[in-house]
């Protein structure tokens, strides 16, 4: 079964909230919702981090949706919390938290120094997933173009980024 790591903006994009994600188009909202639906129906497995202090990714999801009521994003996060121990839907991979936004598994590569520290947990998780499972679990990205400049560097570490929104699709030559 295919596994995916979901950047928080996929879940935010599913809500259609133009305040939180003004660049999200109607097509992008539909793509985000479809992906979440595929996860909840067991067609895709979600990969999240686990560690001594719980899941930093799940904590970020929860933080983004504590004020929403009835949105796709909130319903998806609630579904995740209800299914957190069900490996049919959610795979937990340990990553090592070192310090604020720093993880042992995040590549120590000069070309990644400018990568957003708050997003490093997703890269660390993708690297750890490959180390544990010897298969790539792509990180699904909806609306964060600043990732694009790092795609070729990520590929060196078996990290693949999937941009699911039309305006953010990459040339397939970036994929490993």
Q: What is Rg?
A: 15 Å
Number of helices: 6
Lateral strand order in the biggest sheet: 3-2-1-6-7
Please indicate the percent range of residues in DSSP E strands (runs of 2 or more).
5-15%
Largest sheet composition: 5 strands, parallel
Topology, please?
Elements: E1 3-6, H1 8-15, H2 26-40, E2 45-50, H3 56-64, H4 72-82, E3 90-94, E4 97-99, E5 102-103, H5 120-133, E6 139-141, H6 151-155, E7 161-163
Parallel strand pairs: 1-2, 1-6, 2-3, 6-7
Antiparallel strand pairs: 4-5
General description of the model:
With 176 residues, this protein is α/β, with parallel strands linked by helices. It has a single domain, classed as Rossmann fold, CATH 3.40.50. 35% of the residues lie in helices and 15% in strands. It has helices spanning 8-15, 26-40, 56-64, 72-82, 120-133, 151-155, and strands spanning 3-6, 45-50, 90-94, 97-99, 102-103, 139-141, 161-163. The strands form two sheets. The chain has a five-stranded parallel beta sheet, with helices on both faces. The chain has a two-stranded antiparallel sheet with strand order 4-5. Helix 6 links the parallel strand 6 and strand 7 (161-163). The longest helix is centred in the N-terminal third of the chain and has 15 residues, at 26-40. The model is unreliable at 168-176 (pLDDT under 50).
């Amino acid at each position: 079964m295919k596994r995916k790591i979901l950047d928080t903006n996929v879940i935010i994009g599913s809500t259609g909230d133009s305040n939180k994600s003004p660049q999200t188009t109607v097509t992008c909202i539909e793509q985000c919702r479809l992906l979440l639906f595929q996860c909840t129906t067991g067609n895709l497995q979600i990969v999240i981090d686990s560690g001594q202090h719980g899941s930093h990714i799940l904590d970020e999801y929860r933080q983004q949706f504590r004020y929403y009521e009835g949105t796709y994003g909130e319903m998806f996060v609630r579904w995740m919390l209800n299914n957190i121990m069900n490996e049919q839907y959610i795979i937990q991979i340990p990553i090592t938290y070192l310090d604020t936004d720093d993880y042992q598994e995040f590549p120590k590569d000069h070309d990644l120094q400018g990568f957003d520290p708050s997003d490093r947990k997703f890269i660390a998780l993708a690297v750890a997933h490959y180390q544990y499972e010897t298969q790539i679990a792509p990180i699904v990205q909806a609306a964060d173009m600043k990732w694009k400049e790092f795609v070729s560097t990520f590929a060196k570490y078996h990290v693949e980024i999937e941009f699911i929104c039309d305006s953010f699709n990459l040339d397939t030559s970036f994929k490993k």
